[in-house]
Design a protein that fits this description.
Uridine Diphospho-n-acetylenolpyruvylglucosamine Reductase, domain 3; 3 domains; alpha+beta; six-stranded mixed beta sheet
């Protein structure tokens, strides 16, 4: 069988029309420069957007080459940049993922600026193979095996336009051959040879081994991705039908599932629905791990003595009257309970008052040593705390408690206890705990409203000055 001519395998841009307003993401590499010239050859006029990650010293030269190419082709050019290394360090995330997030954030902003209806990116068949292998090696399920979709509208939270990958069936060698045949200038990123990056190590070491074992390995893996994509599409439709049948209510912060119909469905669809439920609430997380889904599935089948679980550090779940309720820890708490309005910490001056959510406030004032409240442990919640003023000279801050935090209240002989355990012992509803405030000083918690003050800040016989903290409803 004769080999196909290159013109027979060029992308046909079947998903877009010539009048479509579009943004082409152009890094300057062979893939994106080939895509740009192919678009122009076919009569399209995309806006060109380039994001400078400022990781390499020569990245400014790449931007200039893309700018010059866009100018020669008579296309609008948009340039963005960001300090990826600093942002990755600040967020404590990987450089590659941080770069990806910052790049797409900028690209979508350009789409919004010119009212574009599609974003074109130049991922090739080789990129697809690498993506599938990365997912496979990290223990992905069927969804990961489908890799990237040629047309996708739900990759990012609040994604404003779909992403189109016209070169996804085109091997990188063909892309480079196309550039050479047209005399297209492109940039070479030397960081692609850095084996400290997982993707580079796989591209430079693993894929050549697979090629040696089977020259058709890349095509076969890409075909696997297409087949997986078709099967995932069917499962998504079936999951959608179960969603319509079982989900009683859904919002960005909470959803409820009728367990009667849910438990009667196929286990595969149950797991997919639970994954979709988690993705609905955790929209900023790319991957929902299988352990989270398994934890929810076990909870649905067997429950717990308390009727609730902490799914992870952001999600809570409880079962009530054959209904599964899954909600963010920050979900607005029951209206009668104390809560802080946001996760941002706020200063509490002495003297002073800070208004909280649900009609609550916390006040701080100096008091005489003999004007003290009984802060010994009791069966009731305690809404006043007397502290030794000399132990809080660094200033007071109010913020929500964090999962896993421990507190050393008066009455435990200097021992600490998880705040979550304090809530359980006090029978505080799970929906009231997420935004419960704590007052801290110098990084240490000095009071959890409702409980005794911190042991380290207690009033003793040596105390000269007292700060009295009071939490209460100001709308009564």
């Amino acid at each position: 069988m004769p080999a196909k001519k290159q013109r027979d395998i060029l992308p046909d841009f079947q998903f877009i029309q010539h009048e479509t307003r579009m943004v082409a993401a152009v890094s300057g590499g062979a893939d994106s420069m080939a895509m740009l010239h192919l678009l122009v050859e076919r009569g399209f006029q995309p806006a060109v957007a380039h994001f400078d990650h400022r990781i390499r010293a020569e990245s400014g030269q790449d931007a200039e080459i893309v700018h010059q190419t866009a100018s020669n082709l008579g296309l609008d050019f948009f340039l963005g940049s960001g300090d990826v290394l600093s942002e990755a360090a600040r967020q404590k995330t990987g450089i590659e993922e941080t770069a990806r997030q910052m790049r797409y954030r900028y690209l979508f902003s350009v789409c919004a600026q010119i009212n574009a209806s599609v974003l074109l990116v130049a991922h090739t068949l080789d990129d697809q193979v690498e993506t599938v292998l990365m997912h496979l090696l990290r223990g992905s399920g069927l969804d990961g095996l489908r890799g990237m979709r040629q047309w996708s509208a739900d990759v990012f939270p609040d994604q404003p336009v779909p992403i189109y990958r016209p070169l996804l069936d085109w091997p990188r060698k063909e892309v480079e051959r196309y550039c050479q045949s047209r005399g297209i200038r492109y940039c070479s990123d030397q960081s692609n040879n850095d084996l400290s990056f997982f993707r580079n190590k796989m591209r430079l070491e693993l894929l050549p081994l697979l090629d040696a074992l089977n020259p058709a390995s890349r095509r076969n893996i890409a075909r696997l991705a297409r087949i997986a994509g078709e099967e995932v599409g069917l499962l998504e439709r079936l999951t959608g039908a179960l969603w319509e049948k079982s989900v009683v209510s859904a919002s960005p912060q909470a959803l409820s599932i009728d367990l009667n119909g849910f438990n009667a469905s196929d286990p595969v669809l149950r797991r997919r629905l639970l994954r979709k439920a988690a993705q609905t609430l955790l929209r900023d997380e790319r991957d929902i791990d299988s352990q989270l889904v398994s934890r929810l599935e076990t909870f649905c089948a067997h429950g717990t003595r308390s009727g609730q679980i902490e799914v992870n550090d952001r999600l809570l779940a409880r079962i009530h009257q054959h209904q599964l309720n899954v909600f963010l820890r920050d979900f607005p708490p029951e209206s009668d309970w104390i809560a802080i309005e946001s996760r941002e910490q706020v200063s509490l001056p002495v003297p002073g008052v800070v208004k909280l959510a649900n009609g609550w406030s916390v006040s701080a004032e100096f008091a005489a040593v003999d004007h003290l409240v009984d802060t010994a442990p009791s069966s009731r919640l305690i809404w006043q705390a007397a502290l030794d003023a000399d132990t809080i000279s660094a200033g007071l801050l109010i913020r929500p408690w964090q999962r896993g935090e421990r507190y050393r209240p008066l009455g435990l002989s200097g021992h600490s206890k998880k705040i979550s355990d304090l809530f359980i012992d006090a029978k505080i509803p799970s929906t009231a705990r997420g935004m419960w405030p704590v007052i801290s000083c110098g990084g240490e918690i000095v009071w959890v409203p409702g409980f005794p003050p911190a042991y380290a800040n207690r009033v003793t016989q040596a105390t000269d000055r007292v700060v009295l903290l009071t939490a209460g409803r100001f709308d009564n």
